[in-house]
């Protein structure tokens, strides 16, 4: 790996204009694999979800999963694609040990869905990303490299292969070249992948977990000199496996290509690899010969001819798409673009929506998810949605606050208890004894004690220095272990001392 | 008459009636195999105990009153291209030597359900690529009519086993004629069902869009019974037809061709055809006419390009189908010395594990699919396929079945065409069009060629899912000829 | 002129993962040349307006329901493998792309 020179991003953008392209692979969340009945559970013991078909044993044959076909068509429809009236699977032939048949069943010149688009918003500006095609294929197995330095493929002594993943349905979504993103290219790329992820979620077709590889992204970048309209040679960066990496990979590749071009060099059309640690890309091993995949129609599978009436039904039954929903919710919740964007970036919209649906006021729901819980999420590195707390539980906490049973401080403690696995909000309140002291008699007794213990402060208040009441309220809160209603305590203190604000 | 000379139908009735046990029938055949295998070499794998165990199980099922089909207890020789749980499956290739599949092919499973007893796995041209069974990586098989001659191929072990009375029935697969041609040159009946009429699941693929499992038997009715036993819709094979099996047994029992329209394919005669083959063929056509059929000549001009189209389509598919033999998950591994890469080990293994014909076809197919050549070769071959299907369609507007010689010559000497692929390929000249169009086709014995005294086959072709017509016409020819001969053609074969 | 050169045959052998000797390459070059010349006859069928057939029969829409079926046991899956380690297929080092 040689660290090439780079040109600072601003300078690169002054001299060149980037053209993007994205190929995204989405593993569908079907129960069984694409062409056989094996399970698709992530993380199962090695080679326990395999059969003659997905191990490519001699004689075994594929039969296409109806649900995968339907999901792919729904994805195509959600991306505003046309759906093929008739199309075929094709074999993509190349030898690789993690691909049991040494060909991948894919689609070639007859994709199931084609010519669509998706709009994304970046910096208040709508960018239309055109979709070239959406097709269905199968995933490969996974190799682990043994020996050598770091478990990397180079220098390994040998590899061991688990085929559990082989044959899981994989949808490939390919954009047309995206010019015009200009200096926002990295953000556009990120926004596009984010949007795809949300669309997949709203369709319920995949769990789209980038960290588990169920959403994977290849990023194509080329540069053309400002003033030119001729696209440059593109590189394809693989292994871009987080939203942040998508953004960084584009930026890094722009900086690298700009330096090469400015130095009089040329860009090689090649595969590059993104490295999370350095945020840079390196060249993939150059192949001895150009790949010749020898695509031909898959003779073991018959053509797909979706009934137009069925496609129309699927289209009519599509859920509200995320961008439309965001606009609606923003209006309903009365939020600024900035607030909405922040929630979007934090992946909080669905959570807030669910919390509102569970009865919480939108402002409260947003306050908790974007405040206390976002902090917890950052601290623990756990995505918001994966925190061990449900929107219903948040709604319950807001309800307790609204009824006066909890104040914000107590509410935070309740959340902490729920996150710590101590039970439901009500159970945490019960177990930790977190109810506000709203028994006037008990509160009055505490106040009397505090006034007696702080005679000086009480005297100051009595003499008109109302600001000194703060210390007394603090004393009451301490004495009640935070369970007193601070506002009510203040009211009572002033009453008892015969002053008013 | 000894058990081995009986028909499958007779054996089935005897076993059902309790006159003889499945074990006794299996033993009689195993004994016959022990006697003639040194000469014929039809089998790649025989395991007496595994076979007898199956026979005992069938006897037990029958004793328990289980209702089994008409072939329960009847022995069968199974082409070693179908996976079997209890016997190795090699496709006659070194690359799969000793491989024991963890699953049964659908055809295998249906044989077992019907109570057939598998005698062993029969020899074939490696991965079914060939017309002589000389391309087996293990040994050639000899034609029981003349041990210096080939038994045809690729299902030559299956044809020889039936012709040598080692088994009353056997399975084959037909990609370009691999059932019909061996049936023709060994004097037995062989049927290629409609593509999709019999399941390919567990059949080690040669050319997926052409491969079709089918039966061999010494007479038309037995072939029909076996056809019915293992054919029909299979949800594990996407190209399987979800329709009832044509009523082939009924057709085989009704050998009546009066009023049938029979088309003689004009292109399949003349230059390149052995005189004795043409003589028997023309007699068979006259015979059909004398039985009341209406015979007309039909021209299918594109049938002459079927052979080149086939030798592009089949190798293309095979180049991809055989990619899975890569030394990673099963089978042979050569050259893994700890320093070589997976890629090198794959290439060394495949070079060592595949025979010359397989390598030839893999490279030919790789060539035909390569960018730059695809349109001229594979693409054009697929158009020819359409044209041939259309010519069949047009022909079937005029006639009910088409007939031709099954193969241009009788069995040729072992070794004669072994390293002359072009000459070898000609053996499938007449059989290939039916594979390209997916039609049904049968070969039925029609006599011996005068010049060499070897069997000649009549090919009967019928439209998709009209397999029963092949059986009706085949049975009529068989009945008329056997009464003329005073017995089956095979009864004229020399003693082994 | 020959339809296929020895170099092309060597390329095909590489693409097909067949480690052929020089003698084999010569032999196959001659044979493939003859075969290709012969199969080129397919071009004689005028078929510009004819659709290609990839399948024998015009079936469409054959699917299976998304239902889980029994997988193999690890023994069945791995039992025929040339080498196994930790319930995985052990294979020689892969000259792949840097991951
Ligand atoms: Zn599977």
UniProtKB/TrEMBL annotation, chain A:
An annotated Gene Ontology molecular function: transferase activity
Transmembrane region(s): none
Alphabetical UniProt keywords: ATP-binding, Ligase, Nucleotide-binding, Protein biosynthesis, Transferase
Record's catalysed reaction(s): L-glutamyl-tRNA(Gln) + L-glutamine + ATP + H2O = L-glutaminyl-tRNA(Gln) + L-glutamate + ADP + phosphate + H(+); L-aspartyl-tRNA(Asn) + L-glutamine + ATP + H2O = L-asparaginyl-tRNA(Asn) + L-glutamate + ADP + phosphate + 2 H(+)
Domain of life of the source: Bacteria
Residue ranges annotated for the Asn/Gln amidotransferase domain, each copy included: 350-497
Entry EC no(s): 6.3.5.-
UniProt key word Cell membrane: no
A single GO BP: glutaminyl-tRNAGln biosynthesis via transamidation
Protein family according to the UniProt entry: Belongs to the GatB/GatE family. GatB subfamily.
Assembly and binders: Heterotrimer of A, B and C subunits.
Role description: Allows the formation of correctly charged Asn-tRNA(Asn) or Gln-tRNA(Gln) through the transamidation of misacylated Asp-tRNA(Asn) or Glu-tRNA(Gln) in organisms which lack either or both of asparaginyl-tRNA or glutaminyl-tRNA synthetases. The reaction takes place in the presence of glutamine and ATP through an activated phospho-Asp-tRNA(Asn) or phospho-Glu-tRNA(Gln).
Name by which UniProt lists this protein: Aspartyl/glutamyl-tRNA(Asn/Gln) amidotransferase subunit B
Origin species: [Actinomadura] parvosata subsp. kistnae
Annotated gene: gatB
TrEMBL record, chain B:
GO cellular component: glutamyl-tRNA(Gln) amidotransferase complex
Source organism superkingdom: Bacteria
Gene Ontology molecular functions: ATP binding; glutaminyl-tRNA synthase (glutamine-hydrolyzing) activity; transferase activity
Active site (catalytic residues): 79, 154, 178
One of the GO BP terms on file: translation
EC numbers on record: 6.3.5.7
Enzyme class: ligase
Key words, A-Z: ATP-binding, Ligase, Nucleotide-binding, Protein biosynthesis, Transferase
Family statement: Belongs to the amidase family. GatA subfamily.
PANTHER family per the UniProt record, alphabetical: GLUTAMYL-TRNA(GLN) AMIDOTRANSFERASE SUBUNIT A (PTHR11895:SF151), TRANSAMIDASE (PTHR11895)
Protein name: Glutamyl-tRNA(Gln) amidotransferase subunit A
TrEMBL record, chain C:
Subunit structure: Heterotrimer of A, B and C subunits.
Catalysed reactions listed for this entry: L-glutamyl-tRNA(Gln) + L-glutamine + ATP + H2O = L-glutaminyl-tRNA(Gln) + L-glutamate + ADP + phosphate + H(+); L-aspartyl-tRNA(Asn) + L-glutamine + ATP + H2O = L-asparaginyl-tRNA(Asn) + L-glutamate + ADP + phosphate + 2 H(+)
Pfam family, one: GatC
Task of the protein: Allows the formation of correctly charged Asn-tRNA(Asn) or Gln-tRNA(Gln) through the transamidation of misacylated Asp-tRNA(Asn) or Glu-tRNA(Gln) in organisms which lack either or both of asparaginyl-tRNA or glutaminyl-tRNA synthetases. The reaction takes place in the presence of glutamine and ATP through an activated phospho-Asp-tRNA(Asn) or phospho-Glu-tRNA(Gln).
Family in the record: Belongs to the GatC family.
BP terms from Gene Ontology: glutaminyl-tRNAGln biosynthesis via transamidation; regulation of translational fidelity; translation
Presence of keyword Protein biosynthesis: yes
Organism (species): [Actinomadura] parvosata subsp. kistnae
Keyword Ligase: yes
Enzyme superclass (EC): ligase
Keywords for this protein: ATP-binding, Ligase, Nucleotide-binding, Protein biosynthesis, Transferase
E.C. no: 6.3.5.-
An annotated Gene Ontology molecular function: ATP binding
InterPro entries: Asp/Glu-ADT_sf_sub_c, GatC
Protein name: Aspartyl/glutamyl-tRNA(Asn/Gln) amidotransferase subunit C
SUPFAM superfamilies on file: Glu-tRNAGln amidotransferase C subunit
């Amino acid at each position: 790996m040689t660290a090439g020179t780079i040109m600072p991003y601003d300078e690169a953008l002054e001299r060149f204009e980037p053209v993007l392209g994205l190929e995204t692979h989405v593993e569908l969340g079907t129960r069984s694999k694409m062409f056989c009945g094996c399970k698709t559970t992530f993380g199962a013991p090695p080679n326990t979800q395999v059969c003659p078909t997905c191990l490519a044993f001699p004689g075994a044959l594929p039969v296409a999963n109806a649900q995968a076909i339907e999901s792919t068509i729904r994805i195509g429809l959600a991306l505003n694609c046309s759906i093929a009236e008739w199309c075929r699977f094709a074999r993509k032939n190349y030898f690789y040990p993690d691909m049991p048949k040494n060909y991948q069943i894919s689609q070639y010149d007859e994709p199931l869905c084609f010519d669509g688009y998706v709009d994304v918003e970046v910096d208040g500006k709508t960018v239309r990303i055109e979709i070239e095609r959406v097709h269905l294929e199968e995933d490969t197995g996974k190799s682990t490299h043994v020996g050598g330095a770091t478990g990397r493929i180079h220098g390994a002594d040998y590899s061991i292969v688990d085929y559990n993943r082989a044959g899981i349905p994989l949808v490939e979504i390919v954009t047309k070249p995206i010019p015009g993103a200009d200096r926002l290219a990295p953000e556009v790329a990120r926004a596009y992948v984010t949007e795809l992820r949300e669309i997949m979620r709203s369709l319920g077709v995949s769990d789209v977990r980038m960290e588990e590889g169920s959403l994977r992204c290849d990023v194509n970048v080329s540069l053309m000199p400002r003033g030119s309209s001729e696209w440059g040679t593109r590189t394809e960066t693989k292994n871009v496996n987080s939203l942040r990496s998508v953004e960084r990979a584009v930026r890094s590749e722009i900086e690298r290509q700009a330096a090469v071009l400015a130095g009089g060099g040329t860009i090689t059309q090649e595969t590059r690899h993104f490295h999370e640690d350095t945020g840079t890309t390196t060249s993939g091993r150059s192949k001895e010969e150009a790949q010749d995949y020898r695509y031909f129609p898959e003779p073991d599978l018959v053509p797909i001819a979706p009934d137009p009436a069925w496609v129309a039904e699927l289209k009519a039954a599509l859920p509200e798409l995320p961008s439309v929903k965001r606009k609606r919710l923003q209006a309903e919740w009365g939020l600024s673009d900035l607030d909405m964007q922040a929630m979007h970036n934090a992946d909080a919209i669905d959570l807030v929506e669910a919390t509102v649906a569970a009865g919480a006021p939108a402002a409260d729901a947003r306050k908790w998810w974007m405040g206390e819980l976002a902090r917890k999420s950052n601290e623990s590195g756990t995505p918001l949605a994966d925190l061990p707390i449900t929107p219903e539980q948040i709604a319950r906490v807001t309800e307790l606050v609204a009824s006066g049973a909890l104040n914000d401080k107590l509410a935070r403690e309740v959340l902490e208890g729920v996150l710590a696995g101590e039970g439901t909000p009500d159970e945490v309140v019960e177990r930790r004894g977190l109810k506000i002291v709203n028994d006037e008699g008990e509160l009055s007794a505490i106040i009397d004690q505090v006034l007696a213990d702080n005679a000086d402060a009480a005297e100051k208040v009595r003499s008109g220095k109302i600001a000194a009441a703060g210390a007394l309220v603090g004393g009451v809160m301490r004495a009640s272990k935070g369970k007193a209603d601070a506002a009510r305590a203040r009211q009572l203190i002033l009453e008892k001392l015969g002053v008013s604000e | 008459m000894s058990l081995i000379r009986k028909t499958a139908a007779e054996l089935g009735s005897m076993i059902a009636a309790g006159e003889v046990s499945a074990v006794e029938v299996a033993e009689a055949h195993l004994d016959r195999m022990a006697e003639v295998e040194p000469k014929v070499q039809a089998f790649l794998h025989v395991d007496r105990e595994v076979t007898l165990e199956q026979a005992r199980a069938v006897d037990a099922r029958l004793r328990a009153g289980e209702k089994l089909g008409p072939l329960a207890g009847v022995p069968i020789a199974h082409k070693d291209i179908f996976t079997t749980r209890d016997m190795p499956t090699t496709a006659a290739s070194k690359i799969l030597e000793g491989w024991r599949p963890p699953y049964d092919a659908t055809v295998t499973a249906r044989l077992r359900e019907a109570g057939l007893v598998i005698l062993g796995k029969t020899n074939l041209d490696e991965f079914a690529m060939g017309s002589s069974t000389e391309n087996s990586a293990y040994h050639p098989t000899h034609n029981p009519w003349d041990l210096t001659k080939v038994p045809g191929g690729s299902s030559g072990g299956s044809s020889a086993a039936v012709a040598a009375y080692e088994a009353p029935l056997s399975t084959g697969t037909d990609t370009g004629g691999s059932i019909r041609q061996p049936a023709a040159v060994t004097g037995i009946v062989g049927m290629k069902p409609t593509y999709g009429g019999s399941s390919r699941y567990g059949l080690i693929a040669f050319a997926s869009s052409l491969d079709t499992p089918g039966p061999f038997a010494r007479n038309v009715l037995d072939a029909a019974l076996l056809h019915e036993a293992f054919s029909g819709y299979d949800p594990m094979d996407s190209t399987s037809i979800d329709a009832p099996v044509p009523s082939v047994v009924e057709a085989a029992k009704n050998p009546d061709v009066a009023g049938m329209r029979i088309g003689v394919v004009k292109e399949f005669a003349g230059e390149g055809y052995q005189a004795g083959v043409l003589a028997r063929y023309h007699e068979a056509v006259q015979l059909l006419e004398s039985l009341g059929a209406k015979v007309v000549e039909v021209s299918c001009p594109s049938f002459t390009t079927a052979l080149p189209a086939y030798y592009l389509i089949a190798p293309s598919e095979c180049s991809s189908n055989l990619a899975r033999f890569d030394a990673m998950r099963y089978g042979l591994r050569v050259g893994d010395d700890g320093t070589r890469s997976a890629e090198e080990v794959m290439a060394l293994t495949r070079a060592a594990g595949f025979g010359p014909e397989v390598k030839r076809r893999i490279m030919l197919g790789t060539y035909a699919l390569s960018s730059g050549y695809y349109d001229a070769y594979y693409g054009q071959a697929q158009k020819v396929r359409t044209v041939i299907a259309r010519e069949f369609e047009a022909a079937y507007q005029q006639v009910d079945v088409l007939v031709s010689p099954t193969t241009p010559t009788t069995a040729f000497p072992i070794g004669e065409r072994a390293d002359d692929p072009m000459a070898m390929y000609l053996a499938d000249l007449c059989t290939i069009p039916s594979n390209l169009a997916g039609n049904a086709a049968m070969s039925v014995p029609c006599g011996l060629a005068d010049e060499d005294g070897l069997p000649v086959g009549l090919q009967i072709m019928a439209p998709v899912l009209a397999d029963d017509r092949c059986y009706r016409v085949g049975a009529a020819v068989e009945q008329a000829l056997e009464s003329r001969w005073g017995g089956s053609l095979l009864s004229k074969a020399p003693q082994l | 002129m020959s339809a296929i050169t020895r170099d092309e045959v060597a390329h095909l052998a590489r693409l097909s993962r067949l480690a052929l000797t020089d003698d084999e390459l010569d032999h196959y070059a001659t044979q493939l040349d003859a075969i290709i010349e012969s199969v080129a006859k397919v071009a004689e069928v005028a078929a510009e307006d004819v659709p290609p057939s990839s399948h024998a029969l015009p079936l469409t829409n054959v699917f299976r329901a998304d239902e889980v079926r029994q997988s193999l046991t690890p023994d069945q899956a791995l039992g025929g493998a040339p080498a196994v380690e930790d319930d995985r297929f052990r294979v020689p080092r892969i000259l792949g792309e840097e991951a």
